[in-house]
Amino acid sequence: MAGDRVKWVGWPMVVHSTRTAVAAVASLLVARLFQLPEAYWAPITTLVITQSSLGTAFNVSWQRFVGTALGALVGAIVASQFGPHVLVFGTCVFILGLLCAVAQSDRSAYRFGGVTLAIVLLLPRTGSAWRIALHRFAEVTVGLGVALILAWVWPEREEAPSGKS
Question: Which residues contact 60 (CB under 8 A, 6 or more apart)?
């Protein structure tokens, strides 16, 4: 047990923590550079993606990109016509699931799409639903892009199996 704790705080964790912090800060700075109104979504997305190797990060990023695009699209269309009603929201979540299936996306896409849909449809807005959807899509795309660039430039090293169970 003590050996596991020492390994956790050892050099690999320092490198991983540094890599993750650099990615999160870079993502926030890029989102601010583009003056995105809710720039915090970019580093949140980056934090989720940077926990993966490059191959995994690419696959997960693609699914989240597709889901976010679908969620933003459905949210903008529906929010332009209806208010944030419970039945409208539930119907949209159902439709989003079907759209993700048609797009041959996985549950990760559906999850990210659902979050985007909820933000676009349910949060009070000061601007048009299309503008909110575009901003949400851009913020997530920045986070995904920074995470993928980091995974390529500074790949996560896979730990060798310890042989212990």
Answer: 48, 49, 52, 108
pTM: 0.80
What would the pLDDT profile of 101-158 be if each residue is shown by its tens digit?
999 999 999 999 999 999 999 988 888 999 999 999 999 999 999 999 988 898 876 6
- Tell me, yes or no, whether 162 lies in a domain: no
Domain limits for position 28: 2-153
As a whole number of angstroms, the distance between CA 155 and CA 132 comes to: 33
Task: Compute CA distances 62 → 32, 108, 140, whole Å.
Answer: 23, 10, 11
**Quick one: tokens of 48?**
């989720």
Give domain status of residue 161, yes or no.
Answer: no
- Using CA atoms, how far apart are residues 146 and 143, in angstroms rounded to an integer? 5
Task: Say if residues 70 and 95 touch (Cβ distance below 8 Å).
Answer: no
